[in-house]
Amino acid sequence: MEKVAEKLAPKTERRRLDLYLVAGVAIAACAMFAGVLSTGIGLAYFLHPTGALIVVGGTLGVTLITTPPSALYNSLGRIRNLFATPVTNREALIDEIVSYARLSRREGKMIFEKIAPSCSNEFLRNALLLALDVKDRAELQSALEMELRLRERQGEVDAKTFEVAGGFAPTIGIIGTVIGLIDVLRQFSNITAVGSGIGTAFVSTIYGLALANLLLLPMAHRIRARVAERFEIHELISEGVLYLVDGAHPSLLRLKLAAFLREASVKKKNDRRNELPLASGANG
Predict the structure, then answer these.
(1) Which of 90, 72, 116 lies closest to 239, judged by CA?
(2) What pLDDT does 1 receive?
(3) What does pTM read for this prediction?
(4) 39 phi, psi to nearest 5 deg
(5) Between 3 and 258, whose confidence is greater?
(6) Are 98 and 260 in contact (CB under 8 A)?
(7) More confident residue, 170 or 83
(8) Contact 231, 152 (CB under 8 A)
(9) Which of 12, 26, 172, 182 could bridge 92 with an S-S bond, Cβ 3.0-4.6 Å?
(10) Which contacts of 264-267 are long-range, i.e. CB under 8 A and separated by 24 or more positions?
């Protein structure tokens, strides 16, 4: 039975490097450098250790004040997942759930205990085991929905950490600029030094704006997008497990879960189905 379950559970989830994220970071950095170089100003003019210390240190300090340690650790853990994200094949996942429906109709719901360890998705495995422990369908649905809400809320908290930091970074950059201007006014008698000092003072504002708009805020939006995508996958699994508990027919189950497929995937699948009769007619 374990070998059969392993065949029914193909690998639906794998990790891969998010090339779009890497390309976005590279394009933004290149655009910034190209813009600076096009002005004829050397990059060394924008290297201001004092401004960087004020902006980075101030933003980090504010983040520590506004964010509990556990939430901060979870948010930092999300950074790794941004670059190496799990990608789920929804069609394969639906096929797996439908295959479990066929098994359960033949051998009963106790089969869940045998097939759960070989499930390709952790949330699916936990949901099947929970379905064995919870006899009432309404309680099972409530438990799965609570799990979904908690995961979604955790993702929102992680995104909010970077969003809050991105909100404070430009303001702290302005503080660095004000500090630089105060230092410039101390040398007001030297007009040449004042002109050079004002330009240097505004570098802190650039640091703050760049840190917020090129790093922190995009990361917050990216985390929300990933959370939304994972939420759809877990919702698909929750609905599938509830239909398994109801003893739904595999064809009806597949039809209902197909709503979670992307439009392109549905069109591709329909095209394949339309090609089959044509191929059969040609062979005939």
Answers:
(1) 90
(2) 46
(3) 0.78
(4) -80, -10
(5) 258
(6) no
(7) 170
(8) yes
(9) 12
(10) 265/90, 265/91
